[in-house]
Amino acid sequence: MGGRAVARCWLLVASGRGAKDYARAQLLLSLLSGTVELGALAWFFFSGASYWLGLRLPHVWTYFLVFGAGFEAVSLVFAWLGRAIEIRFEMNRQSLASWAVDQLKGLALTAGLGLGAVELIYWLMRTSPNHWWLWSWGGFAVFFVLMAQIGPVLLLPLFFKMRRMGDDEPMCQRLFATYAKLRATNPRLPRLHGIFEWKLGEKSAKANAALTGLGGTRRVIISDTLLESSPVEEIEAVFIHELGHHVHHDIWRGLGFQTAVSFVEFWVAAWVLGAVCPRTGMPVSGVASLPLLILVFSLLYLGLLPANNGFVRAMERRADDYSFQTLGTAEPLLAGLQRLAEKNLAEVAPPRWKEFLLYSHPSIATRIRRGRAWEEANART
Ligand SMILES: [Zn+2]
Question: pTM for the complete prediction?
Answer without folding.
Answer: 0.89
